[in-house]
Amino acid sequence: MASSPNGCAYLTQLVPVFDAARSTLYPAQHACYVDYNRLTNNLTLMSDATGQWDSTVQQTKLNVHGETPISSGNCTVDASNS
User: Fold this and answer.
1) Global pTM value
2) Confidence check: pLDDT of 39 > 80
3) Burial level of 42, CB count in 10 A (0-12/13-18/19+)?
C-alpha cells in the first residue's frame, strides 16, 4: 500500500514486488519487480540478466492501446490492458 498525506499526485513512483515465496532477499530470485513512474506513465521490469534497473530492462506505456506486453523470466505485464 502507498499513500501520501498530500494526495496521490505526490506519489510519482511505485515499485511493487510480486513474490509468491515471500523472500526477504533483495533482489529475490523468483520475484517480479515492476517499476511504475506516474510522470512518464512507464512500466519497467527489472532485468533478469543483472537483477538491476539497467539498459537491459523492458519498458512499456500504461493504458496505451497496441503496446506489446513486456515479460521477464518471472512475470508478464500487459500494460495496454492495465
Assistant:
1) 0.73
2) yes
3) middle
Least Cα distance to 51 among 35, 28, 82 occurs for: 28
Do the domain assignments include residue 4?
Answer: no
Structural domain harbouring 23: 13-81
Using an 8 Å Cβ cutoff, are 13 and 38 in contact? yes
Q: Quote the number of domains for the chain.
A: 1
Q: Which residues pair with 34 in a beta bridge?
A: 45
In this predicted model, what pLDDT tens digit does every residue of 45-71 receive, in sequence order?
Answer: 888 777 787 766 777 787 778 788 888
Residue keyed to cell 519498458: 59
- Whether residue 31 is contained in a domain is answered as yes
